[in-house]
User: Fold these one by one.
Assistant:
Number 1:
Amino acid sequence: MNVREPITNHRARLLALVGIGTFAGLWCLLSYADIIPNVILPTPTEVLKAFPTLHTEEALVRSVGWSLYRVSMGFLLSALVAIPLGLLMGTFPAVKAFFAPLVDPLRFLPISALVPLFLVWFGIEETMKIMLLFVGTFVYLLPLVVEAVENVDDLYLHTATTLGASKWQLVSQVLIPGSSPAIGEALRVMNGIGWTYVILAEIVNAPYGLGHLITVAGKRSHVDQIFAGVIVILLVGVVTDQIIRLINKRLFAWAE
Amino acid sequence: MARQLTPLGRALIVLCGFALLGYAGYRYEWFKKIGGLVAPDRKPEGTVSKDDFGGPVATTTEAPASSSAPSGGGTRLSRPIKVAIVTWGGYAGGIFANNGFAPTKDSVFFKDFGIQVELLVIDDFAKSRDAFRAGGDKGGVDIMWSTVDSYSLEYSGLQRLSPKAVLQYDWSRGGDAIAVDASIKSVKDLKGKSLACAEGTPSHYFALYVLTQGGLTNKDVQWKFTDSAIEAANVFKAGKVDAAVSWSPDVYVAAREREGGHILASTKEASNLIADIFVARGDFIEKHPEDLRRFVGGWLKGVDLANQNPDKAALLLSKSFSGVGLEDAKGMLADVKLPNYSENRAFFDPKGSLVNYHTIYKTAQGIWRKIGSVKDVFEPYQTVDTRFLEGVSEWFAQAQEAKPEFEFKTAPRTTTAPILTKTVSVYYPTGSSTLDENAKAVLETQVVDLAATFGSAYIRIAGNTDNVGNHDSNVRLSRARADAVAQFLVSKGFDRNKFEVVGNGPDKPVASNDSDEGRAKNRRTDFEVVPR
């Protein structure tokens, strides 16, 4: 194995399977052999058995639907605000200089500390949950968009200017297309971050929701249900991730 | 010659097809059926009403004869006993016996009982359970706090640890309360309102109790569940809900700071509802029974000391808990009652106090089950181990019998509005005020528990009749009947002064006297809970 030595797709898949297999094997060993007590680490069998219960009694599918809705809304909202703002900031250093002192520290924002504030500001219904997911993803998305715009090679701008492009044409013909693959990738990452915040967002007044499901299971010490809930979040996360990846590939095929 | 369909035509036909399918799906409820299979809803909640509280506790569930008190069995622990607690005044006894939170040799626990104890404040509920699951040997705790009502909810999840309740360290006496907005004057006004509380907690249980005793059910309010009691208080303070159940001091601050906010009811009146208990891990009990026995003994010794020196207890509380001043600490102590050795014995005895561990556990479990939060049923005796309590008698030799706690010297002021009114139909033979067996059974299930749970409150017993017959004799009869009810309750061990007897006759109808049905509704006994 050399540094950055390319491997074939076939081998990559094989290694991935081995990775998953090792992990699953370790889980089986630790749980079935009772090396870690089952109240801390449930066995795979227990976790599998938790699914039918969650499905028939705890409205698992509806919860997935609600969480998906909240994460998507937060995601769309942050894209709607962060992309235009990021474009402006990446294009005009003056705009960036204006917003930078407000936006830069936001990356250190402890989102969990916002929950009590958001409850008071936005109430206990959906607005609060979506706003939390919006803020949680927005603070990461904006710098990435700015960076994507700034990373468009000056060479393209110079060429376009030489060819007589107007200011508007520089943005619409050079900067936007030049940065969009990187923005697409940033959006994919945001989807992932959105799912990590879903438990926090659904901590209050969420009759349905995967985050709520996991919180309640935790309080009742149903470790098997916590694992099952986490597995569902992982699955939904991976599936939505693949969908965004596919869309990015279609839209920005030229960037490959 | 067949004509070629245009793309638009094709699209139209497909659309029609979908529309037909859609209509059929709607008409024959296919969607509902498919939806039920693919995305079933939660199991529908049952309705919790006043009948779910205070039912007789089956005495068929006799606990297995407890083996002799454990002493000397197992091995002695070589590290401090680790106990998870929260910021709450009920730990005063243990803090007194331990002289603070950290294990120290300068403590009653060490000097008189030869053990060391470490109290760990874990305010986050889920984290305290994580610590309990991990266990004291692996960075967690050996003993955790719970309340009898929420213990019955979490027992099935913890069952594999074979946990056992070993000690009651306090009764909440004002520690839990319902804050309401200006429009709500009594429990009945809560109908249709939004109510915030942390799900499955003592707050939730307290709300269910008060709602149902006041004639509502769990379905009459819009529940807004929060993650913690503090959040419930905060959303109430911010005006986002009409009512909230939370803990002291947050709930009192929220009620004060919201315009028109006030406290509707608290465990100051419902004095025997929320019991805080310690639960020990099964493996700890098995391995170190002697240490646990000394822990129980030392804690109860601390309770006696704290009850004798409340000022010193408050000082210790304020020194130990971060962010708690001396005045706060005094308030925290005022919101709890620390039961001593004899009171603990009476609490864990199924035939001890009228309201005890067994009655609360059974009632709470039944309610959680109805709401759909628990599936498996356990008998109270399976969840408790009283051997340690029994085993500490040597240290409490001259302990007296548990005395009645509340004295009722004066009659209740007639101007004080009741918190809630529980309406019960008690049947008497025509013209008589004698209680038959049937009537006694009704009182036993519907009223004894109410009166015992609202241990510190007055109960106004108001007899009512329909308008058939002579007015004056109806008034006299209704008063005699209310008096008979009071006499019956006194025979159950209550103080006569706790009850005020009123005969309304036909003067306070709740329905029209023009129909049989209405008249039946008017023949009733109202039990008004009046705070002291």
Note: The CA atoms of residues 463 and 482 of chain B lie 5 Å apart.
Number 2:
Amino acid sequence: MHEDEFRARFHAALGDAPDEQAAAQRAAAALHRQPPPEEREGPPRAMVLMAVAVTGLVLVGLLGPRLLRAGSRATSPATAVVPADCRLPVVVTDARALVPQYSAGFVSLATGRFVGDPSAQGGSMPFSRRYVRDQWSPQGYDPVLKRWLPVRPSQVSPDHRAYVYILASPLATGKGGEFDSTTLHVYDVTTGRDHALWTSHDQLGADPTWRPDGIHVQTYPAGGGQDTYWTIDPATGAAARTAAPASAAVLATAMRTYRIDMGVEFGTDGAGRPILLDAGSGAGAPQVYFVGGPNGRRIVIHSGRRGDAVDFEVDGFVVDGERLWAANRDATAIWLWSATGGLKRFPMSGVASFDGSVTPRLVGPCV
Amino acid sequence: MTTIAAAPPDAADIGSFEVWIEPLLAAGYRLAYAMLQSQPEAEDAIQDAALRAWAARHRLRPGSDPAPWFMTIVANQCRQQRRSRWWSVLKGGDVPEGVQPPPAIDGADLRRAVARLPHRHRLALVLRYYLDLSFEEMGRVQGISAVAAKARVHRALVRLRAEVPEELSDA
């Protein structure tokens, strides 16, 4: 029997999967019905714990290299003072609908109240696109430009005049692998000019990061292979291969030292050190949020168990000088941490969580 | 194989993840249905697989193809769901390699025979002859090389013939 004939008979014997589209939609909807770990019998508890922990895998808030040296514990008390009257920019994601809706505003540290900002609109500002369906959404608030931007703070130039974003070509429809190339674009916010800077036929591994020495990009061959790190000259587009960032080695050391099986990296702090979550393994295991120091040293931000009285349940951190800010995923608290000041809680209100379907994300330093 | 944007979702919410993974759900459901031969069980499997994928999305390296990653999760979920039901009928023993696909047999018999196969053999046949994956794609789902994937298909076909010798006597 020819292989094609067997394939046809095999398929006929098993039959078509009934109600395929409806089943897929129900699976998608099930993501929103995820009960707390205690109620589930299916996935291992640690896996579910992780599911809750990773709601915010990706980080925010790199404002470029800071003055701290890696490993330094010296922190100026003056810079760690809480600016009591400042406001934190927040993007609220409402995932109750099939297509998530975004709104943006500020949380007053003094009152804890979230107030939406109607000016958080895209206008003509371009944004990163990989899919045809991608739409503008606020991703960051720039404290110098005093504008909402469709990119993360790490993508803004150090002089706050421009930002870098990416365009995939062709844009994916979600129905096939049409990937051909990715181009870095620079958009000058002050003049409105946009230009293509650099094109790669490999895939970009993460959003680019704009630092004083250039735009940092990580690429992977589309068919798999080694990571490559690049620094792109924002003026000329010249690309230079660079070594892996030092934070990668620190991360690897921390993972080995503490035997972290279930971990999340939230990016780096103001000193370039990785911010990590050791989610533990097994029921009731402590979750440790920490900054990875040299030689495996761990600077603990918070250690506790899910559902404990402290209720530290965050999805990411924003770097604000030597400070780290975070928001509870249930929108009930803002957290401030510094090496010298420790962890401090501020109440938050004004965002209804709807059982975790609506989540806040801090997208800039306190202004 | 269905593919989607290689980068994991940037947004830190499950809604964005849902949008990102949605193109894979139908293919995942087809795989689950072929493996489990039960619509309710397939739906359970794909829903649990979607949750597991969300929980484990940090393990998907940026830039890598998420389709085989998700298919692996679905396949593992199917194995877990069927382990208790089919454990008693699994048969051990090596079988020779290098056979041709079996001849035409009755659909019901073939379906039952496929259902009795060990998970790895059933998965190999489903990926190859139901989802029409290449050996390279199969290897990425199963965590083996393309050559090993091809060998596994051959072994599965041998096993299938052993399950229904009367229908495959002219093979």
Note: Residues 35-80 of chain A have pLDDT under 50 and may be disordered.
